[in-house]
Design goal:
nine-stranded mixed β-sheet; nucleotide binding; Dihydrodipicolinate Reductase, domain 2; six-stranded parallel β-sheet; 2 domains; alpha/beta; 10 helices; Gfo/Idh/MocA-like oxidoreductase N-terminal domain-containing protein; Gfo/Idh/MocA_Oxidoreductases; Rossmann fold; single chain
Amino acid sequence: MVRIAILGAGFMGGTHGTAYQNISNAEIAAVCDQNETLGRAFAEKYHCRYYSSFHQMLEECQFDVADICLPTFLHEEYVLMGARHRKHIFCEKPVALEVSSLERMMKAVKEAGVLMMVGQVLRFWPEYVNAKEMYEKGSLGELNYVFAARMSEHPAWSQWYRKPQNSGGGLLDLHLHDVDYLCWLLGRVKSVYASGKQNKDGCWNYVSSMLTFESGISASVQGVIEMEKGYPFTMELRLVGSQKTYEYAMKAGHNLEDVASSKRETRIYENGAITTLPVNLRDAYEIELEHFVDCIERRCESGIITVEQVREVLCTMEAIKTSLETGEKAEVDYDRQASV
């Protein structure tokens, strides 16, 4: 049995808590949150111990994994603390605001001999997994056009989120999802060109990126995290192949908080025929965390997402930010010297 300590009793912490309850070889040992009201309510719901201090939790509680669902700007501090105490790490995305921060985390977990996985969940989302499987089997043929999009109201979780130095804004918290998936699907990105607009707080919350992969394939990616109030959380994927077109669309409730009532549809277009695929309703976060727990039990790295791949994606995000700021195409620098 893998014992989990969840850091952060907010929306994502609760999402993880619910997922772990459905994973037979996982047990929630404790939750840590400075907000005592939130933390104690979480502990009561998930039948675990509550701590207001991670230091105290590390001293008093026996657990295997630190599952970090804290604000982005706190990730490095808590990853390093957990690694020093030989805890395996699961960290929600975006893992860091800068590549150098991630590199320090990578060094710490390597030295501690523990596993670390980052929650870039589209690699476990059934429809996105299905699209990758079809492409790799060759059933779509040669890809002629690739499009992905993500639209959302601005999250109302907390004021911390509105500052780019805290969250990275829509660029890192929203746009990253589709960039990550396309890197998983198509490999490393060679160069990017991005245009967009910052909001009054300096967050790049309106972004359109063109990615050119080392393979020569290009993809268009759009992300907006300040849609009009009431606009449903929307995900789109379109792979136009020489043999088939794969199209997925989802419209959910308020910022993914009402996934159960979302409208999800996958269509395959081929020679004038349209096939609608059945919806897989299994929660992607549960699939993701079940995979991580299995990796912990087998003491092996994930074959789906590694921290090295997460670094490559973050390098791509930094290139997109550079392009947004300069108005010019930017090359992705994977060979930058590590800052540790």
